[in-house]
Amino acid sequence: MSKAKVNNDGKTRTVQQEIKRRTVIAFSVFFACVIAGGFGFAWLYNQPPTADNVQPTLRKVLTANEKLFGMFYSKTREAKTFKKKDAVEEVRVNGDVGIDGDLDTTWRLKVARSPGDTLVLTLDDLKTLPKTEVVFDFKCVEGWSEVTWWGGVRFSDFMKKYNLVPQTAMHYVGMITPDEAYYVGNDMPSMLQP
Fold first, then answer.
1. DSSP string, 68-114
2. How close are the terminal C-alpha atoms of the chain, in Å?
3. Where on the phi/psi map is residue 11: left (φ > 0), alpha (ψ -120 to 50), or beta?
4. 89 and 14, same domain (yes or no)
């Protein structure tokens, strides 16, 4: 047998009646949020994109996030490094989009310095730069991480060697695979870290 309960509004309800009342309120709020979210998404999706193919509202949010997190970024604080023994023996392969098949050593790296001015480099060109190795905690945008051992050309060395120092004033570096199936962008200060 349920006991009666007196509420703040002065009405007496059983426990079952109170549960039913709160359940109706909870589902009503939930469905109102779903409907509002649907209308909000439709409004955002139908906004005309800007020149960089992003809706203006999303661009404002991205810019605000960049400013907020930029306050915590330090050009002098480097990522924590580890010893080679701490690195995984086999690096996780997250996918093969843009890297199908064997590595073609005749590939060309194309660097767009400005519209109409493209620098074309070979693998041998890159091999003239000093090789740098680093063991660090690789954090994937998809949420996983692992300590990995990498070797290659330091971006700052690359920029100096090929007279790209004026381009370091740009905010971002965009990289795309030859088949244009995959692309990524990184902020310039992070790219220039040693």
1. HHHTT--TTPPPPB--GGGS-SSPPP---TT--SS--TT--EEEEEE
2. 72
3. beta
4. no
What does the DSSP 8-state code read for residue 42? H
Q: Are residues 42 and 93 in the same domain?
A: no
Confidence of residue 6 (pLDDT cuts 50, 70, 90): low
Q: Which domain holds residue 173?
A: 75-191
Residue 148 tokens, joined = 């990995």
Q: How many domains does the chain have?
A: 2
HEC secondary structure over 5-36: EECCCCCEEEHHHHHHHHHHHHHHHHHHHHHH
**178 and 137 inside one domain:** yes
Please give the Cα distance from 32 to 133 (Å, whole number): 54
Residue 39, pLDDT score: 94
